[in-house]
Amino acid sequence: xxxxxxxxxxxxxxxxxxxxxxxxxxxxxxxxxxxxxxxxxxxxxxxxxxxxxxxxxxxxxxxxxxxxxxxxxxxxxxxxxxxxxxxxxxxxxxxxxxxxxxxxxxxxxxxxxxxxxxxxxxxxxxxxxxxxxxxxxxxxxxxxxxxxxxxxxxxxxxxxxxxxxxxxxxxxxxxxxxxxxxxxxxxxxxxxxxxxxxxxxxxxxxxxxxxxxxxxxxxxxxxxxxxxxxxxxxxxxxxxxxxxxxxxxxxxxxxxxxxxxxxxxxxxxxxxxxxxxxxxxxxxxxxxxxxxxxxxxxxxxxxxxxxxxxxxxxxxxxxxxxxxxxxxxxxxxxxxxxxxxxxxxxxxxxxxxxxxxxxxxxxxxxxxxxxxxxxxxxxxxxxxxxxxxxxxxxxxxxxxxxxxxxxxxxxxxxxxxxxxxxxxxxxxxxxxxxxxxxxxxxxxxxxxxxxxxxxxxxxxxxxxxxxxxxxxxxxxxxxxxxxxxxxxxxxxxxxxxxxxxxxxxxxxxxxxxxxxxxxxxxxxxxxxxxxxxxxxxxxxxxxxxxxxxxxxxxxxxxxxxxxxxxxxxxxxxxxxxxxxxxxxxxxxxxxxxxxxxxxxxxxxxxxxxxxxxxxxx
Length: 617
Ligand code: NAD
Fold this sequence. Notes:
The chain is built from 22 helices and 20 strands. It is α/β, with parallel strands linked by helices. The strands form 5 sheets. Strands 12-13-14-11-10-16-17 form a 7-stranded mixed sheet, with helices on both faces. The chain has a 6-stranded mixed sheet with strand order 7-6-5-8-9-19, sandwiched between helices. The chain has a 3-stranded antiparallel sheet with strand order 3-4-20, with no helix packed on it. The radius of gyration is 32 Å and the shape is globular. It binds nicotinamide-adenine-dinucleotide (NAD).
């Protein structure tokens, strides 16, 4: 394990870590400064090439071994998270342990496919015969900066694809919940990750800022305000950033929804982790005919929630407020709503009689968009429910605000639900579900508007940790001079102009026909003897003809010669095309030869793209 080159100064300015459910200090972690961060990144930079060199299989071995470690140490992982978040173990197991286990396996197995070389096909005749490839290479050292609400998912979780891609990672977890990240470092070290490849830099905002200065890419999860600072700082060194920021997820309940399911979901996905979820249901819009019934169901369910310090499995539903200032923010949102005319249906204040920090699960009615609780991120166990006239009003209100992280639409008519979902300005929108999309690691997740930049999961969830390089490999037997190379000549320029005109206006061949023609040319031309008088010293005749633009030449020659009527072109296009190609060299096409003789005085030159300018056709 590496928790960084910890100096005495770092320990002296150590940060106490509190259990928010009890108020006890459970650990102290060092506050690392800029010099220590620089030393860690230097170590990471030295370790990274060997980590890259062991390849996907070698890295997968470490990640899958970590998965086995996590299963064997599940209780320790859950206990650590519970201790620094004050959240029930049941929820921690569903939301974080399960995610960690699946992410370790997913990225270990998906990385080779998502980062495999991609062969590119180009429509341009100019690059015929070239091999076009996109390849992915690791960036080097990735800095991951995480928030306090999900210490495993949103801190270590984002390191897994970065590591699988061959990068070294320095993780700066939130100073509020750093212990899980330190445990993950211990896990990887026990599972054989080379020294320096994964390190945890504990500290606060300044430690995070110092990390931004040193690394090759920043993966940041946190608030919009800090995200902007991170992006501005990264701009100083032109370091790429991926930002997963806050949200204000709307839930739209249409009149025909299954109200029992919608109400259960509103309460679960609005109150889990005490509402401290970036993709929490933060506000609800209910179509008028369903409003009273929905509000009643939600209120009953919220009233029956059990709140308190985590206990035996099944004993507590809603846990603590992790971040001390958060409790004042939640209270301020409720107070502001009430001052502007909202009604507290249940809850509404910090919970009394419990150790630690808790806020009562709260339902607000008679809310509108003049209130902070409908526009700003509350990040607490509050559910403001607003009546709307129709889906259009719901969509308009859902889109009113700076955020665009996630949303959900609830209706029995999934087709209609999908149509509404497509109108919501959010990076993810679920129909008859919420939050669960996070478990689908194949499905990209990222915010629109102020909710972020880039995404996690899916192909981009790992490609963002890679440099992309495009390769164009031209065969060694390519002609010594290409059509477009110096010196320019008037006939060639004229010819190219005619070629463009001809191709742009042509509907002679469909793409499928062109493809067939390419294959035929590839097959036929190399099998022919070189034309009389040509020794074929450069191997031209033996080359794959379609690589050299012959299909385009055929099409153009057909177009320009007028040798075939449109009807005949379509019915016997293959024969015509092949003859047209071969005729300049073999004289195989009698029809063409006759016409050529007739029109020799006025014929426009047939473009032969297979030849370099100046060579004799
Ligand atoms: P935050 O922005 O206060 O802090 C996030 C991290 O940034 C912490 O590690 C902090 O130490 C560090 N930091 C602070 N100042 C910094 C600076 N100047 N330079 C570099 N790093 C700095 O966020 P938070 O309060 O820890 O987390 C809650 C927020 O995170 C909420 O807005 C929530 O919606 C969001 N969040 C988003 C997602 C997502 O996937 N979109 C997931 C979880 C949380």
